[in-house]
Input
Amino acid sequence: MSNSMITDMETKIIYLENGSVTSAKGYEASGIHCGLKKKNKDLALILSTVPAVSAGVYTTNKAAAAPVVISKKITDGSSNVKAIICNSGNANACTGVDGHLDALEVQKKCAKILDVNQNEVLVSSTGVIGVRLNVPAIVNSLNILKDNLSKDGGLTAAEAIMTTDTVSKHFAVKVELSGGKITIGGIAKGSGMIMPNMATMLGFVTTDAKISKNLLQSALKEAVNDSYNKISVDGETSTNDMVLMMANGMSQVEIKESSEDYSIFTSALKDLSIKMAKSIVFDGEGATKFITINIKNAPTEKDANLIAKSIANSPLVKTAINGGDPNWGRVISAASSCGADIKPANCTLSFNDLAVLEPGYKIDYSEEEAAKIFAQKNFVITLDLNDGNANTTWWTCDYSEQYIKINAHYRT
Amino acid sequence: MSNSMITDMETKIIYLENGSVTSAKGYEASGIHCGLKKKNKDLALILSTVPAVSAGVYTTNKAAAAPVVISKKITDGSSNVKAIICNSGNANACTGVDGHLDALEVQKKCAKILDVNQNEVLVSSTGVIGVRLNVPAIVNSLNILKDNLSKDGGLTAAEAIMTTDTVSKHFAVKVELSGGKITIGGIAKGSGMIMPNMATMLGFVTTDAKISKNLLQSALKEAVNDSYNKISVDGETSTNDMVLMMANGMSQVEIKESSEDYSIFTSALKDLSIKMAKSIVFDGEGATKFITINIKNAPTEKDANLIAKSIANSPLVKTAINGGDPNWGRVISAASSCGADIKPANCTLSFNDLAVLEPGYKIDYSEEEAAKIFAQKNFVITLDLNDGNANTTWWTCDYSEQYIKINAHYRT
Output
């Protein structure tokens, strides 16, 4: 995307106050407590009042939970959808055939209450692994869940999908396209780390744009690749990760293939997804710092991402960030040990605007300046390979003693 | 290797008390303080009184330190060697052309003192990254280092290569071959984690067996693959990792290609290497537990190792072990997310002899029993894939709050 397009786009995107999955036309949502958690909301419903095309991006974990398998089949198919139901408090993962039947039962009963076909309901779960889902608790609450559906329900739905999150995550953007304005809104959960027995990251996105299923899937995949797939907390992929999207066309603004509108739509969706992904990193329990990692001028995009991921996942880099130690040797070591094509002697490594390592291993910087940067809550690590033109940006947080404490003693 | 051979071999290997690199015939060593560290020994020398064939296995980190580049060139070549010189306190990594010249200078001056050719001296360094080596401190101490060489010097050499290690690591085995007895001895450093700015793991091994350079390299590579390459603390590969080996033939016992002697020699070397590798994991600063990870009946060895590595490196598994939480969901999730060929529904997962997960996600175990096992300082996690016949064993330790504390605040 050219710079002029970015500028154009910025003027065409407006973030809405209290935006969420109900910001776009034709969506209602609700969030209630059904009893899977001791207290707090644990069941969410998002409804499109008219049939919508759907798209989904899912975990690659081979122990994918039942709702992943069921929802993927739907978004891979050609039928329209009308709703997403999601519970927190139980991941319904590693629960075998029984767990699969449990998820289907929830889907079926939810469809019945909404008076839609079973395969029009996408299902999602997050919470403890290896424990059977309390299906009656959910089913007995479906009437209340439906009764609570409202045009303002996006925020309560965002609350109901939280597990260890300390804040709910919800955003929406209004985008100006050639045929008029459309809205994209989303809610997400994930608390900056994969929690003990907790399945991690969920994102649900809705739009009133009119777009084909294939185009929607392409746009979502691209957006996820540049957002959720570039955040790292502890580098693990959970059994339940998914991002689901519905597009119901209620704006009557159509997005055509290969059009400038499609580029703008995808950019807006990416921007929204990055906001949601960053909010997950920000909310890391135990996380005290937020770090942006820029890799510049790598030979290939693959190399750039390998290097960014290796730095973002490095326990030594993450503990140095926690301790405020501008330990550039760890960054170079992590970058050089991931199998990517990198010539350490060619690199320029900077913390914010301070170059700490320059080509030829030239080291000429003020340790005091570097320490000041590492003392900040939010800074940028930039590694310029000077060896190509592929760039990428990732986001990560630190490893704190609190991280260990939470993860070591969660169940005890 | 057949079971009968293992039994045969066990009777043919005897561990020596206070064994080290000077246990085999024709080796002397010394360890002194030359001033790279504030106190404690920081310079070691291992000498073979006659020319020896050498072998080496090195870090794959692309920011490999100067001594790695220099020593690799020698062990890759055909010339014999006579000595290994190693300093602690400074890794001489990320120091560019100047650092390379520094290492060559140390090598040259050491060769001169020992009256050998420069390329008969292997060099090694461990310590802080990115700081120029204090060459005069080393060079000015070479006379003392040489004067201290002795038949009992292996233990002081083991001390002199320590960085954050709390104990020195040294072992030796006597092995009965068809032509008589030979000895293999080694010293190692590494404190169970890659330390801040510290280059991690070094191993130096000597033997009086008579063996060709090629055979020695094959044996060492195999031994390293099944020992040092199967320990994980934080999954990072440092700039300075190396294992060097010398064989000087002083026992007059020859090991021929494809012989049973070669199998026994390799098994003994592997056994010694595993002992040294385990001692590194045991000595992890902040590590409170020692875990053996067995992967059984995987489709391929590659899959088995990928899975073992993923479990061994998983921050969530390592924190659960720290907290004594028998959190099998994390183990399955780590195993299923590494890209290996695994069918989670087919797996049997056991903690010691307690099966916590059986095929078909059958869960029928006592949480209390599982917690008792996880409360131990030393236990075994076994994942049986029931889907092939490849097996592997890895070793790891836990992540403790102390780990974060040490790594966050090391320089501050």
In short: Residues 1-7, 194-199 of chain B have pLDDT under 50 and may be disordered.
